[in-house]
Every structure is written in C-alpha cells, then in structure tokens.
Write a structure and sequence with these properties.
heterodimer, A: 254 residues, mainly alpha, 13 helices, B: 273 residues, 12 helices, 75% helix
C-alpha cells in the first residue's frame, strides 16, 4: 500500500530515489576529496576503502529499507495508534516494518552496490570462488546484523519512546565507522564492535580476508566467514527483546 | 506597533521556540549521545588523515579535531543535517494555515526568525556544550583561552544561524509554488551539507573549487564560525572580515526572502479548505 501510494507520484518518487542515492553518495565524495591529498588512509587505498564503504552502505541500506521505519514505534506509542495495530490480524512486527515503507531507500542500496562493484574491480585481489561468494554473503549477513540493531532499537522505544535517535549511533554511526579501515580507530573502539556490538562482522572482518590482510586481535582467518552465524546470534536476543517490549506494553489509553 | 512592543513580541516568540524544544529531555539526551558517538568516529578518521598529511588545509591536528567537535556541537543548532522550521512552514502553506499567519499583526519573516533563533539557542546550549566537553576530555583540542575569541565566536555562530535561517526561509517559500517541498528540501540539505563544512572542512577542498565554495553563503554556517574560534585569518582584523562576510550574506539573503515573500503573497492563491 505504501509502495503504491509513493509510486502514484512518479516524478516525486524518482526525485526521492535520486536524492536518497545522492545523500549517501555525499559521504563517498568526502572520502574521494580526502584521497586527493593522500594515497592511503590507515594503510588502505581508495578502492579498498570503496569496498568497505560500499558493503557497509548496501547492508545498512537494505536493513533500513526493511526495518528503517521502526523508529516510528515511539511516536505510535505516544499517540496511541499502536493499539490499532494490536487488534489487526497481522503480526505487529510486520505492520511496524511496513509502516510508511519507503521504497526510495533503494537509492542507498543501489549506490552502495555501485561503489562496491567499482572497488571490487579496482582492488588488487585474486578473485577466487570463495572470495566471490563471500561478497554477497557479507552484504546479506550485514543486512541481518543491522536489522537486529533496528529491532533492538524498536524494542528500546517501549522503554524510552523519545530516545529513538540513540539507535542512529549504532546504525548510521556504525556504518560510518565501517566505511573506514579498522586501523584508523582506537583499539578499544575496534574491540567494542568486534566483541560487544558485533558490527565488525558486517564488513570489516570479511573485507580484511578479501584484501588478504590479517584479522584484528590475532583472530583466525575463518572468522571472516562467521558473519551469518553472528547475525543469527544477535537477531535472536533482539527478537526476544521486541517480544518482551510488546508484551509489557500498556496503552496510553487515549 | 511601537518599537518596544515589537521587541517584546519577538522575544516572546523566541522564548516560545526555546521552551518548545526544551520539553523533550530524553530526545535531547539521545541527540547528545549520537553527536558524541559521531564525534569520536570522525575524530579518528581525521587523526588518520592529518597523520598522513600534517597541516592539511592549514590546520594542525588539534585544530582539525576542534573542527570535528565544534561541528558536532553546531549540527543541531544550525539544523545543518536536517530539522528546523521550513517543513512546518511548508505544511502551513500546503494546508492554507499560512493565511492566518499573514493576518497576524506580526511580520512573517521576523516571526519565524525569532522562533528559529529560540530553538537554536536551546540546541546550542543543550546539544552543543556536552559533546564539546566530551571531545575536550578525550582529545587534545585547540580551544582558545582568550575570552574575547569566544565572544567573537558566539557572534559568528549567531550570524551563521541567521544566514542559515534566511536560506531555509527561501526554501520554505518555494512551497507557495510547488506545494510539496520535499524535493527542494532534500536538494537544499545536500548543498548545505556539502558547502557548509559538515562533510569536510572547506579549506581541504582542492584548488579553485575550494575558493568558490568558501565564498558561498553556506560557509557562514559552520566553516567561518569555527575559523573565528581557531583564530584562522590571523587576529581581530581577520575575525572582523569574517563577521562582515557573514553579515553581508545575512542582509542579502533576508532581503531576498522579503522579495520572494512579497511575490508569493501577491501572486499565489492560498489553498482553502
């Protein structure tokens, strides 16, 4: 329904799609300008950074397309319209995900995929079968990890409805961090996204393997292939948190 | 209306704008958290960049890091990555409520300016001060000790807020012709993010392209206030030139807003309902 209503205004939709792609492309313009002054950032060349940037962007874009509107849960709790969703014979989760579904967010996905392709074509890598397979696997697993963050964020809004912006730190903030090589950041920050909020599995660890670089903290090479398992590992508690939040929900009564 | 009454009216509007945003405590705390997280991420990338190229764009590393934290602190106040009043104004134009606003015994542009400056004042305090303190605790920043420099900085920030308002007022008025402002809003936001220094400090932009971008009004919103704080452009004379540059754009753009507003109210039929 939301898709049809946006497609009703074709020109406006096209503009929004282009706008979405341009907004996310702006970050890459920034990186490009940085590379007009330098040859390598944290030891990574421009195509290598492009690979990081593109995979992080595509994964976040897909998760945002599927679950990005969960930040409206807080507003729906406040104005009481979540009650309407509870009485419909469709899971609340599906309704929340489809709430104002914004197809224009495909713009970020397409832009991320394009930069990934450019980076993959220009990095100095022997593309063996396992590496070719790892790339789409990474984006899908990364999508699932970001989806878990969105879901946890939605659950958090049952506790603090106005704090929806906190999840931006982990989604947009996380994706911004993952655009750059891990060598740029402090050890403690890298440790945090490997072991605490495992965003490093979105693209860092797989990309380090693709580029023939060692994993951080002496982790073995095969950790690069663990992303799908990590995704399941974080999706499970996020789903539990969502169910707990929904069960504890008391309507505003208005 | 007598002068004193007018001042009281717009002061009341500004105070209303301040209080309106002060209501949302949790949302403000969430915003501070996000600004601080982004500050850390960007700071480390700048450290890597300035390690590679010391004195890039005339900044040393401490100055570059100061740029990061001050810009995170000004994002909300300047509505530099979204927010602000123009979407609300466009909604009033679309629904026809603007007709009521035009009947009020107050000037439309000054009314919105007062409300927006009230909002900005709150966000400068609540969302500006904590991230700067966090950044100063963790990193070695080039914050000046001279109180005069801070006063000049605040004047420059204020002028930047007025320039930002004047630009968004022009964008907001487009709704009189377009009705749906989302397209121009998005384009205006893109240009502002690129040309104000949000994306990268403008002195890092290469060659003649950088020269042009630094002359545009958007630089008043972020780059110029930070340079005033950092003392770039050497001494009070440099700061004076910077403030004059901002004031000139503010006057020019506010005047353009009045011209466009006159055209809009004369030519366009307000949507009834």
């Amino acid at each position: 329904m939301w898709v049809r209503s946006t497609l009703a205004y074709r020109a406006s939709f096209a503009l929004a799609l282009v706008g979405s792609a341009l907004t996310s492309a702006l970050d890459f313009v920034g990186i490009y300008i940085m590379f007009t002054h330098i040859d390598a950032l944290g030891g990574f060349s421009l195509p290598e950074v492009a690979l990081l940037y593109g995979t992080a962007g595509a994964a976040l874009g897909l998760a945002d397309l599927l679950l990005g509107n969960t930040d409206r849960v807080g507003a729906r709790i406040r104005d009481g319209s979540l009650d309407t969703m509870l009485v419909r014979p469709v899971p609340v989760f599906a309704q929340v995900a489809a709430d104002r579904f914004a197809l224009r967010r495909l713009g970020r996905v397409l832009q991320g995929a394009a930069v990934t392709a450019w980076g993959a074509a220009h990095v100095d890598v022997a593309w063996t079968a396992d590496k070719v397979l790892l790339l789409p696997l990474t984006v899908l697993a990364g999508t699932a990890i970001f989806a878990a963050v969105f879901l946890a964020g939605a659950a958090f809004q049952f506790v603090a409805g106005d704090a929806a912006e906190v999840q931006n730190s982990f989604t947009y903030g996380g994706a911004t961090m993952l655009q750059y090589p891990p060598s740029v950041f402090g050890r403690e920050m890298v440790r945090g996204v490997v072991f605490v909020v495992p965003l490093a599995f979105v693209n860092w660890l797989p990309a380090l393997y693709l580029l023939g670089r060692p994993q951080p903290f002496g982790l073995p090479w095969w950790t690069a292939f663990l992303s799908p398992f990590v995704a399941l590992l974080v999706l499970a508690p996020a789903a539990v948190a969502w169910r707990a939040g929904l069960r504890s929900y008391r309507s505003t009564g208005s | 209306m007598a002068g004193g009454d007018a001042v009281r009216l717009y002061a009341a509007v500004a105070a209303g704008g301040f209080r309106r945003y002060a209501t949302y405590g949790t949302a403000t705390a969430a915003g501070v958290f996000t600004n601080t997280v982004f500050g850390f991420i960007v700071a480390y990338t700048y450290i890597a960049l300035w390690d590679e190229r010391p004195h890039l764009g005339g900044y040393d590393q401490a100055q570059a890091l100061t740029f990061v934290w001050i810009s995170q602190s000004l994002l909300a106040a300047g509505a530099l990555i979204g927010g602000g009043f123009q979407e609300e104004m466009q909604e009033r134009i679309r629904t026809g409520d603007i007709a009521v606003d035009l009947y009020r015994p107050a000037d439309l542009q000054l009314w919105w300016l007062a409300a927006d400056l009230g909002r900005a004042a709150f966000q400068l305090l609540a969302r500006g001060v904590p991230p700067t303190i966090a950044g100063a605790l963790w990193f070695d920043l080039a914050l000046p000790a001279d109180p005069l420099r801070w006063v000049l900085f605040l004047v420059s920030v204020w002028l930047g807020l007025v320039v930002g308002f004047a630009l968004r007022y022009l964008v907001g008025l487009c709704a009189f012709w377009l009705l749906d402002g989302s397209g121009v809003n998005m384009m205006s936001l893109l240009v502002s993010m690129f040309c104000s220094g949000v994306l990268l400090p403008l002195n890092v932009f290469p060659g003649a392209f950088g020269e042009v971008v630094r002359m545009l009004p958007w630089s008043s919103m972020l780059q110029v206030p930070i340079d005033v704080l950092l003392g770039e452009g050497s001494g009070a004379g440099g700061a004076g030139a910077a403030l004059a540059f901002q004031a000139a754009w503010a006057v020019l753009l506010l005047a353009a807003g009045r011209v466009l507003q006159a055209a809009a109210t004369r030519k366009v039929v307000v949507q009834g309902g």
